[in-house]
Amino acid sequence: MAPGSGLPAFPAECRRRAREAPEGRVWGCAMPSTWLLLLAYLTYLALGTGVFWLLESPAAHDSSERFQRDKWALLRNFTCLDGPALDSLIRGVIQAYQNGDIVLDNTTSMGRWEFVGSFFFSVSTITTIGYGNLSPRTMGARLFCIFFALVGIPLNLVVLNRLGHLMQQGVHSCARMLGVTWKDPAKARWLVGSSALLSGLLLFLLLPPLLFSHVEGWSYVEGFYFSFITLSTVGFGDYVIGMNPSRNYPLWYKNTVSLWILFGMAWLALIIKLILSLLEAPRGSYPCYCHSSKGNFKPRSWSQSLDGEAEPHSPQPGCSLEGPVIMNCPEPSVQVSHCGKDS
C-alpha cells in the first residue's frame, strides 16, 4: 500500500506521474489486467492445441501405418532390396526433393537457384515467411543470408508500413470526397471502408486461389489456405508454388506472386491492426473517481475510441481530461484522481 494514499503501490509509470504531479495532488493509476490477458492467451493456445490434436493425430497415425505397409510390401516384392538400403534410398529421395533435384519423366521443377527462384527465396526471407522448402547449403550463402535478413527485414517492415499508410490515405481521401458530395461523412466512411475491405478480400484472398488452381493444380480451398498462410507470414511450407515437377511454369509466375505477397502483406497488416485496436481498446465508458481527503467520490466517465484516444463522454463541469487516463478534478484539498475500468 502506498503510504497515506489508501491505494495499491504504484507501478513505475504511476510513481513517475506522482513525482511530476503538482504539489498537493497525488495521482492514482489503474493496474492493467495483464494476468487476464495472459490467461486468455494461454486458453486460446490450449484451444488450438486440442483442436489440432483431435483433427490431425488420427490422420498422421494412418499415414505412418500406410507408409510402413507400402515399405514392407516393396521389400517382399523386391527381395534384392533390404531394409537399410531402402531407408537410405528414401533419405536420398527426400534430400533431393529438398534441393530441387527430383527428376520425374525427364521433367524437373523450375530451377530453385536460378535467377527467378533466387528472387523468390529473397522475398520469402525478408518477409519472414520462410517456407522451409529451400535453404542455403554453402557456408558463404548462409553467412550472407544472415546479414541480408538483418538489413532486409527492417527494410521490408518500413516498405510495408509505407504501403499500408498510402492505402489508408487513399481510403480516407475517398471518404472525404464522398462525404463532401453526399453531405454525410459517416455514411461515406462506412461505404468507403466496406469497399476497401471487400476489394482487398477479392484482390488478395479470393481471386489468387483461382490462379493457383489453374497453374498449380490445387483445389480452391488449398489455394485459399496457401494465400492466407503466406500473407500472414506463417509459411508452413506444405504448399509452395513452383514445386510440381510435372508442370511447366511461366517465367512471370513467381515474379507476379512476389508482388502479390508484398502488397497483400501490407493490406493484411492493416486488417490485423484494426483487429488489434478492437481487442486492445474497445469502445466503452470508463469511470473516473475524484477522491478528496473528505472521502467523497464524484464519478465522471469518458470513452475510448478505436485508435486508443480518449474521447470525452458526458462531460461535466469540474472534471477535464489531461491525458489518456488522467482526470483533473479541482478540489481545494489534497486529492487522488483514479481512473480505470469498472471491475
Assembly level: single chain
Largest sheet, spatial ordering of strands: 1-9-4-5-6
Percent of residues in helices: 55-70%
Shape: globular
Uncertain stretches: 1-11, 282-343
Provide the residue-averaged pLDDT.
74
Helix tally equals 9
CATH topology of the domain at 112-279: Helix Hairpins
The overall strand count is 9
Summarize the main sheet.
5 strands, mixed
What is the chain-wise order of helices and strands?
Answer: HEHHEEHHHHHHEEEEEE
Query: Structural class of the helices, strands and pairings?
Result: alpha+beta
Give the CATH level 1 class of the domain at 112-279.
Mainly Alpha
Distance between the termini: 19 Å
CATH architecture of the domain at 112-279: Orthogonal Bundle
Taking all Cα atoms into account, the compactness measure Rg is 29 Å
If you had to describe this structure to a student in words, what would you say it looks like?
The chain is α+β, with helices and mostly antiparallel strands and 343 residues long. The protein contains nine helices and nine strands. It has helices at residues 12-20, 34-77, 83-98, 115-126, 139-182, 185-206, 208-216, 220-231, 252-280, and strands spanning 25-29, 103-104, 107-108, 285-292, 297-304, 310-312, 320-321, 327-328, 335-339. The strands form three sheets. The protein has a five-stranded mixed beta sheet. Strands 2-3 form a two-stranded antiparallel ribbon. The longest helix is centred in the N-terminal third of the chain and has 44 residues, at 34-77. Residues 1-11 and 282-343 have low confidence and may be disordered. Glycans are attached at residue 106. The chain crosses the membrane at residues 35-55, 115-134, 141-160, 190-212, 224-242, 257-276. Belongs to the two pore domain potassium channel (TC 1.A.1.8) family. Residues 108-168, 205-279 form the Potassium channel domain.
